[in-house]
Amino acid sequence: MAKDVEVAEHGEFAAKDYQDPPPAPLIDAEELIKWSFYRAVIAEFIATLLFLYITVLTVIGYKSQIDPAHNGTDCDGVGILGIAWAFGGMIFILVYCTAGISGGHINPAVTLGLFLARKVSLMRAVLYMVAQCLGAICGCGLVKGFQKAYYNRYGGGANELQPGYNKGTGLGAEIIGTFVLVYTVFSATDPKRSARDSHVPVLAPLPIGFAVFMVHLATIPVTGTGINPARSFGAAVIYNEDKAWDDQWIFWVGPFIGAAIAAFYHQFVLRAGAIKALGSFRSNA
């Protein structure tokens, strides 16, 4: 078997100084008898619940602070910047807390991207997505339970296409925003970078959270920023108004397309997965 090599700066081939983990099997039945598997699913559920609870409360609190009925003005409250910090900061915290247990996905789009890159099995990906959606529903349900009047009055934190934007613009915003997030996840957790820079695994949650923050700054005025189908679905289920459901497809199709593009770009362009596979085939022929 040929030795794994990479092109060095001067055009020569050098041995790899890192080891790629083996691809995850498509179906791994052995996972179902391991407690670590169910522990990871529970961690995804709780993390998504906490994520929606804090962030939706922030959105509702901001809208109540700027409500003219409460003598509020556009300058009151945390503003769009504060909302973006809430989303990005919670992702930073929760990824840091759960990365060693479940990988800290907290987002079906991230899970899909990692599945397409064969980082997780199909069984794990499906149960993660189910747990994330259930966690999002429960998180929004807690917010409504504690502040029902405010929740209904201020839109329940549901994602909706904002006035002045068509569905194509909203879909494009979700695709590009999710691409930025999933691309950052791949880059921050790249085993090649982790092997060469020992501080990278510790700092991985920081760029991921910061990517969420930046995307929210750009797309809150367009779609309210989804980039996480579980976040959009949970809020729509609890709020349960026609507008939230009419636009719901945007917050599934856009993130999934963006995640798939990011997975392809990182694995087959930046990491040259297709070229390596072809080289391995030729060396074994």
Describe the structure.
With 285 residues, the protein is an all-alpha fold. Helices cover 67% and strands 2% of the residues. The chain has 13 helices and two strands; from the N terminus they run E-E-H-H-H-H-H-H-H-H-H-H-H-H-H. The protein has a two-stranded antiparallel ribbon with strand order 1-2. A hairpin with a 5-residue loop joins strand 1 (5-7) and strand 2 (13-15). Helix 2 (79-98) runs antiparallel to helix 9 and helix 3 runs parallel beside helix 12. The longest helix is centred in the first third of the chain and has 31 residues, at 35-65. The radius of gyration is 21 Å and the shape is globular. The protein starts with a strand and ends with a helix. Mean pLDDT is 86; it is low at 1-15.
Q: What's the SSE blueprint?
A:
Layout lengths: L4 E3 L5 E3 L19 H31 L13 H20 L9 H9 L5 H25 L1 H6 L13 H22 L2 H6 L3 H4 L1 H19 L5 H11 L2 H5 L3 H21 L2 H12 L1
Antiparallel strand pairs: 1-2
Keywords:
single chain; 285 residues; mainly alpha; two-stranded antiparallel sheet; 13 helices; 67% helix
Provide the low-confidence segments as ranges.
Answer: 1-15
Strand order of the largest sheet: 1-2
Amino- and carboxy-terminal Cα gap = 10 Å
Q: Quick one: overall form?
A: globular
User: Helices and strands: which structural class?
Assistant: mainly alpha
